[in-house]
Each structure stands twice: as structure tokens, then as C-alpha cells.
Amino acid sequence: MFFRNLSLFRFPESVTKSLKHLAKDLDSHRLRECGPLELSTRGFVSPYGRDSEELLHQTGAFSLLTIGAEERLLPGVVVAEELADRIAKIADKEGRRPGAKERKRLKEEVISELLPRAFIRPSRLSAYLDAEQGWFVVDSASRKAAEDAVSQVREALGRFPATPMAPSESPRNLMTGWLIDGKLPPGLALGEEVELRDPAEAGAIVRCRRQDLESDEIREHLKSGKQVFQLGLVFDDRMGFVLDEDLVVRRLRFLDVVLDELGDGTAESARAELDATFALMTLELRNLVERLEKWFGIPRPGERD
What we know:
This protein is α+β, with helices and mostly antiparallel strands.
């Protein structure tokens, strides 16, 4: 269950008190089945799988939760085709074309008739809270999905003032400087991936993978004024990832030195395996997040009036 992407949010110290009742708060916001006339539903499900009722897995200050969703798949083209058929029948039978108001009513009828027969697509999204350091970490590179996760927790808690990171150092400028100077912070090394852009509107974009980032080719792009928007990095020889200008961690992968610490993977149960993996992952990621906080100047927010 290692996370593959990280969208990071910070919350003030006062929120920690409300997290003591997190399991109870989540319980009243469980995922329910999508009704016949509903497009979608969202709620919390067990991180242990469908056979468990527990909604929270906790290891020390870390709390793992899973947000589930059910969405009915009703393609717009299907609705449009059925609506066109009905409009054509009215035109043939009555010799007239329905007006805008009637077309709207017909469309609503089509949707209400087709929805109960539409397939349901389930989805799951994992996230965890670090109560000590004030981080909410979502396993997604999508801004919308991550913000939806924050909203779901806020709805359960009643109050959850988690906000996106607000770095005092420009990630784009800092990462561009790392690539130009070749001087990265201790423990950080260049990977083999980069996205360079001309900062001008509609400027050129260069994407490289499996590329020596210290090559003359890359340097020429930098000399022409392009800046780093995404940069492949390796942290402490323990994990590799791509960091973007919004400090979203993409394509996160833990290297063999970390995976070897899990042993042969013969845990007695799925629960024991989840416990071991989550404990290792959160401790590793805490080290990374603490460095991001230091490199980019990311203060923990205080209370807002």
C-alpha cells in the first residue's frame, strides 16, 4: 500500500485535539451505496478492505484513512442520442420541434430513466494524517482529488483548516538553481527526468526521461531561459520521485534499501502486512517532508480568525 503520489496539506496544532475522536467522526460519514437516481456518493471505507468495518488504521501519530466513492457511468453521448430520438418522434408525430423548456424536461426524463440501469464505478483514495507535525498527505497528484479528500475530512470533523503548502522559496526558481549550479541540498541527488518550460506564455516545453540532467543538452535549454517545472530527484538513496512546481510529489517509488526492510513479505495476515508497510512508509515520508519544509520554507499555519 505504498503511496505513489503525494499531495501535501498543512493544518494548525489545534486540530490535533479534534483528531482524538477521528474514528467516531468518520463512522457517521461512511460510504453508502449509490441510489438509483444519484450520480455519485462519497464516504469513508475501511483501509483493511471490504471485509472490515474499521475506518481507521493508526500507528503512533499517523492515521490512515480511505475515502471511497461510487459513480454511475452515464455517458453524455448516450443521453444525447436518446434525447434526439424523443425529439424526432415528437416532430414526426406532432409536426413541431420542442422548445428549450420542453427539451430540458425531456432530458431530465431521459437521465432519470437511464440512471438506475447505469453501471457503477467504485474508487478508493488513501490519505494519512501526521498529528504531531500537522500534515495531511493524499495519495494523488490530482489537485481536485486531493482537495476533495480535504473536504471529505472537513465534513466529518466539522472543522479541518488544512491548506495547501505556502512555500517562502519559489520551487521553480530553487529547482532551476539546483540544476544550473549542480549544488543540491545534502541527501538529494538528481534523477533522470525533467520538464523545462519557457516562462513566457505559450513558451516552449521540453520533457526528458532517462536523461543525464547534467548534460550539455540540458544546460543549453537552461541558458536559453527555460525553467524547471518538474524535476526527478533521489532522496537519501531511499526513494525516487518527481517534484513539480506546486511541490506535488509524483511517481514516488521506494528503493530496494527500503523494501528490504520489510523482509520476505510473509506477514501472518493482511492486517499485519498493512501495519508493517504503513509504519515504514510514514517514517520514511516524514523524513522527506521535513526536508521539503526546510528547503522551501513551509511554516506550519497558525490559527485563523
